[in-house]
Amino acid sequence: MTSRALPARPITPPATIGILGGGQLGRMTALAARSMGYGVHILDPDANCSASAVADRVVAARFDDVDAARDLASNCAVITLEIEQIATEVLDAASAYAPTRPGAAAIAIIQDRVRQKTWLRDNGFPVGAFRVVDSENDVRDAVREFKSSFVKSSRGGFDGRGQARTGDASEAPKVWKTVGSRTAVAEQALDLAGEVSVLVARRPGGESVAFPVSLNHHERQALAWSTMPAPLSREITDKAASIGRAIADKMEIVGLLAVEMFLLPSGQLLVNELAPRPHNSYHASERACLTSQFEQLVRAVCDLPLGDTAIARPAAIVNLFGDIWRGAEQPRFDLALETPGTRLHLYGKGEPRPARKMGHLSATGDTAMSALDAARSAAARVGAITEKPPATLAAFGVK
Questions:
Q1: At what angle do helices 293-301 and 24-35 cross, to 10 degrees?
Q2: Which of 6, 39, 23 is nearest to 302 (CA)?
Q3: Could you give the CA distance from residue 64 to residue 156 in angstroms, rounded to a whole number?
Q4: Domains recognised in the chain with CATH numbers
Q5: pTM for the model
Q6: Collapsing DSSP states into helix, strand and coil, what is residue 68?
Q7: H helix or E strand, kind and range, residue 40
Q8: Tell me: the pLDDT tens digits for 271-330?
Q9: What DSSP letter does each residue of 252-279 carry, written as one string?
Q10: Distance in angstroms (rounded) separating the CA atoms of residues 77 and 21
Q11: Cα separation values, 247 from 208, 276, 376, Å
Q12: How far apart are CA 305 and CA 40, in angstroms?
């Protein structure tokens, strides 16, 4: 008689979850995990990282420290991450001691923009025109071909860092220096109606669920505000969710996958970037959805039944950057909280700096746009002035 292996058991409390990365996403994931009864260990280069205040233990080490990863994983039942810039050797080392979700194969694709764009194109997912550039001359040729281009470093860089936009081929030397004088991706600049994202949660066995689509707006190449559910047609949101789930399944992600997309004036959707972790554009899920993205990550990596992602009440967030802190003077958050339905979320970071995300304000409303109005109004009271939805979205009924 041949024995058959039983399926792996779910990882239940009071087991310990290890998180690679201790920034704000790690902090909020840790809070969700602790509310469910799990222990939390963190690996981060900074012993006083944002998540340290809510973790049982912090292993202070670089994201390429294999020995530190073994130390973390040997004391945890499962490992996940809140930042994709983790050495794949670290993920492999951790996986020898505990399930590592998502795994090294998916992270190797996502953490490198060249691999990511190429993988998306080769697997038939819709992306804009792009070229891989390895020199100033390559940048010059790409700008001449595309007329206007975004050039993005293949490794690292976020919130506009390691990126440059140009329509002038003579600026190639400056652009090449901006992206670190290393392999980069030159993308054709597109006329956009707007930007959306979809977040997919997936268990080890392949069961998945998509959160409602979020409508996003960037300023200074960083997310300024986000609202959900996106006030767009069912046709567009269903298509976005379908693309997101297909990418998560093809990549065999375990955990979360955020898929950022461009919405063109024609209604076409193009994939911009992937993130295998909680995502800034889904912070509103804590207010809007029956299950937040952070609880859902815990459920997915621990192989628990996935939570209901239905909208309980539309919600929106506005990011708070270090610009609104003026020396030792703290922003008047009490004034922001006078706006009905508003909550404050600070990340426990150290010294505020311009363009550094320090927290966000969230608000609810009867509709996604009324929630956004409330969040923007509250943010304005502390000096965080954000733009209205772009006029290009009016053709889709967004005002």
A1: 70
A2: 39
A3: 14
A4: 16-100 (3.40.50.20), 129-188 (3.30.1490.20), 194-396 (3.30.470.20)
A5: 0.95
A6: helix
A7: strand 39-44
A8: 999 999 999 999 999 999 999 999 999 999 999 999 999 999 999 999 999 999 987 788
A9: T-SEEEEEEEEE-TTS-EEEEEEESS--
A10: 17
A11: 11, 11, 33
A12: 20
Residue 44 pairs in a beta bridge with 60
Structure letter (DSSP) for residue 4 = -
CA nearest 363: which of 287, 293, 289? 287
> How is residue 188 written in tokens?
């054709």
**Ramachandran region of residue 124, left (φ > 0), alpha (ψ -120 to 50) or beta?**
left
**Is the CB of residue 77 less than 8 Å from the CB of residue 95?**
no
For the chain, give percent helix, strand, coil, nearest 5: 35, 25, 40
247 in Cβ contact with 125 (< 8 Å): yes
Length of the chain: 399
Digit-coded pLDDT (tens) for 319-370: 999 999 987 788 999 999 999 999 999 999 989 998 899 999 999 999 999 9
Q: What angle do CA 297, 302, 306 make, to 5 degrees?
A: 55
Kindly provide the b/e burial profile for residues 232-270, where b requires at least 16 CB atoms within 10 angstroms of the residue's own CB.
beeebbebbbebbbebbeebebbbbbbbbbbbbeeeebb
DSSP string, 87-117: -HHHHHHHHTTS-BSS-HHHHHHHTBHHHHH
